[in-house]
Amino acid sequence: MALERATRNITSDKDVFEISGPTYLTSLNWNSTHHQRSVAACLVQAVYILERDRQENLEGKEALAPAWWEAFHFELTRKLVDDADFSIFGAIFEYKPPVSILSSSLANAPRFVIAFRGTLNKAASVNRDLTLDLHLIQNALHQTSRFEIAMQAVRNLVSAVGSSNIWLSGHSLGSAVASLAGRNMAKMGIFLNTFLFNPPFFSAPIERIKDKNVKQGIRIATSLVTAGLSFALKSKQQVRSTTAEDTFAILSSWIPNLFVNPSDHICSEYIGYFEHRRNMENMGVGIIEKLATQNSLGDLFLRSLGKESEPIHLLPSANLTVNLSPSPDFKQAHGIHQWWRADLHLQTKKFTY
């Protein structure tokens, strides 16, 4: 019934599960990182289509979204609604497999997944989404009501069922929401399994420079400047700097899963961020990079003016997965749809602080 429902009122190929969804996943192996990634991405897609259904007044049998969670035996338990424009920006899904499914991998299955969509180019929601994108660039996402709604939903669910079987998942702006929620929980010693697809990393597009020597030289120079300014600011604001270092150390035990595409300038800097840190350690100057990696020039400037600013895009640790498959344009490089394809050429590395 789920696949049948998805064929009605087709607005684009992306809405049709049997065209875009991973129909090859007829049975899930929760020990497989590929299956985990695919399901986490599909549930984010479900949130996108939930909001599309709302705007196009598609309900009941006409709704397109249910196919994206029912195919994997999930149930929608709650929609997360923005209080400014009443758009659906997130959802909580509960995994309820039929009793006929007996698998040793079920131990690694989530009980709940909280998924967050990114910016949706639809008239009824795009203005609010773009406003939140601006807040994100200014490191002020935590001050928005949308994030407060998301954070409260995460806290309430963890309080009710515990943290070991809750996943966070998000794409683009939604991955920033999921990342910030995961950070806040990690500060309390609660480490949620987190899937961040095309997470924003706002900086100069150094990763797009083709010449490796030039690129490395710029990164080294940036690290030296950032570390120097951070040290100078630390001398003036000893308490604030020590707290920042302590926070970064606490967060190091939280290892989110990052999924980036080198052709996507919104997230590609994560590749250079983690690789450069490892290169600096190999060069014997890891102490400099240790200071630089937890600071950004923009946030240092704000702190010098006495303003509180935490660079939420800087992560101590991560499982970084890079999609090395060709992407013909930015739309495909940044899209959520790439992450459940069966023919991906992926490279995964673990980075710890």
TrEMBL record:
Sorted alphabetically, which InterPro entries does this protein's record hold? AB_hydrolase_fold (IPR029058), Fungal_lipase-type (IPR002921)
**Annotated GO biological process:** lipid metabolic process
Ranges for domain Fungal lipase-type come to 150-191
Against Pfam families, the record matches this protein to: Lipase_3 (PF01764)
What name has this protein been given in UniProt? Answer: Fungal lipase-type domain-containing protein
